[in-house]
């Protein structure tokens, strides 16, 4: 055996003098080498933002955390392996047996599932509330309420919540407020500036923007709360890969451009969709008929490219078959990428406080970055197919 073997295993240090890049370097690490035994023995003193083990972050993850912290106008950000993991980590870290958590009836359905299965098993009560009724929320809040969850607008049905009023109510009772801001992103709404203590983003959606990464973030205003969350995530063994962070950092560079285009094209498609006789309602915070529209006007900077279509009772049973006519829209879950998506969503089973009055199937559309004309033609193709299916249904 000669020293070539050792040379192969050791990476030389090279000069960085004169080098700069507009891109973000991908620093992968499990092991972080220490300069001496003393530095290793005292590594905990580097604090929750220092580098001591790859799980707790590298300069790449810190760069993404910092960018999100600034956009959210928060104190610190923690990254999680999915948006769902950000929500469950925040709840598990802050709640204990005997506590109550208030959750909007319109919450992202996997969160309801988590609360009913896992929080219930831990003796934590999930109480669901009508997202548009502050008085009802006040009545639902018990003495053991520790956390009020907000998702604005709500999943699929798009009700906008009055976060400042909810935060005032929760804080008066000693409860914290967490807000899922995935639809708006910090470009269109800043929950921490409107009273939330915690804001969660599904980075999978608009931040990443290319439908190829799953990641989430938790941003807080309070450094002690950030430490609690960082330590909790470390104990859980939860971290994210530097490569995935680099992809989200790249997507984030174009997020404002993508979202402004998504919103503009969504508004023009909605104008055409609303005129179709087969459509009962379009749900979109920027439309006056969507619950909470006045709050959206007051608190949000704009809208995103995701909206939902409720069909008339005679058209709704034929929507699924008519989706086969789409050539540009892709049928699939998640959203916020470059491609436009259509997802038929059942709503009724996910509402326990206020029954859903429209047809059970609501079509959620996410506008991507394809040409506006091509998308409009695809929507026309869908409605032509829908009318054909309805006529065929009548003939039968
Ligand atoms: C998609 C989504 C999430 C979860 O994000 P993942 O990264 O897919 O787990 C959370 N909240 C809302 C509102 C979402 O739409």
UniProtKB/TrEMBL annotation:
GO terms for biological process: L-cysteine catabolic process to pyruvate; transsulfuration. It comes from the Bacteria. Signal peptide: none annotated. Pathway: Amino-acid biosynthesis; L-methionine biosynthesis via de novo pathway; L-homocysteine from L-cystathionine: step 1/1. Keywords: Lyase, Pyridoxal phosphate. Its cofactor is pyridoxal 5'-phosphate. One of its GO terms (molecular function) is cysteine-S-conjugate beta-lyase activity. InterPro entries: Cys/Met-Metab_PyrdxlP-dep_enz (IPR000277), Cys_b_lyase_bac (IPR006233), Cys_met_metab_PP (IPR054542), PyrdxlP-dep_Trfase (IPR015424), PyrdxlP-dep_Trfase_major (IPR015421), PyrdxlP-dep_Trfase_small (IPR015422). It catalyses: an S-substituted L-cysteine + H2O = a thiol + pyruvate + NH4(+); L,L-cystathionine + H2O = L-homocysteine + pyruvate + NH4(+). It holds the Pfam family Cys_Met_Meta_PP. The modification N6-(pyridoxal phosphate)lysine is found at residue 205. Belongs to the trans-sulfuration enzymes family. PANTHER family: CYSTATHIONINE BETA-LYASE-RELATED. This is Cystathionine beta-lyase. It comes from Bordetella genomosp. 9. The lineage of its organism: Bacteria, Pseudomonadati, Pseudomonadota, Betaproteobacteria, Burkholderiales.
